[in-house]
Hints:
256 residues, alpha/beta, Carbamate kinase, eight-stranded mixed β-sheet, two-stranded antiparallel ribbon, 10 helices, 10 strands, 15% strand
Amino acid sequence: MVKIGTSLLTRDGGHLDRPLMSQFVAELARFQRQGIEVVLVSSGAISAGMGELHWTKRPAELSKKQAAAAVGQPRLMETYRQLFRRYGISVGQVLLTREDFKNRSRRQNAQATLETLLAAHVVPIINENDTVAVDEIRVGDNDTLGALVAINIRANVLILLTDVEGLYTKPPHHGAGALIPCVDKITAAIESLAHAAPGSDGGTGGMWTKIRAGKIAARHGVAMAIMSGKKPQNLRRLLAGESIGTLFMTPNFSGF
């Protein structure tokens, strides 16, 4: 499973970065040709919608966010459809909310759909259903969504592509740190590396949600990697066994 963050998919206030998306698709198509089942969790719908609507600032109102997602999601999917079609690969859109994981019947239905798509060599492209999700039914971020889907389909690894190289020995607000290549267990000390700077109200660079996703995945035996998506070719290096980014191990993970 591969999750790509909004910062990698968009540029210039919401316009999709088609050249970079094309590189991501080329790498994922390569994996599928090698017989590796690929599931993509893709952010970017709200930002893509903002660009289409000529909104320069991300809206605070829920209705406007949902409107932007309604406009941006088909645009995002059409771009992926065109790019994957170059390699003879079909894609399928799967939009989920928290209820799709909490409710047993809905969870099983989602699992069956994803497994059927994979059996048909279709690449499922997953996002939260932002057009209808309210706080009560939202997963909240695509890192966590990726972990929940990875568990549901029994993926062997979840790869989170972001705009940083991985997890560092110091939070960014404490100065330069060293990249941590491997984490055997997510401890309180590891969690502290993702805490927000004093006085801020969120995580640092989105790392907190990634650590949380790693904890969720590890409980169910799914390994996770955090790495920079600025060079999509690093995906093949990671799967070839090179030390790229930060790998969160699980006892049953035997490698790529």
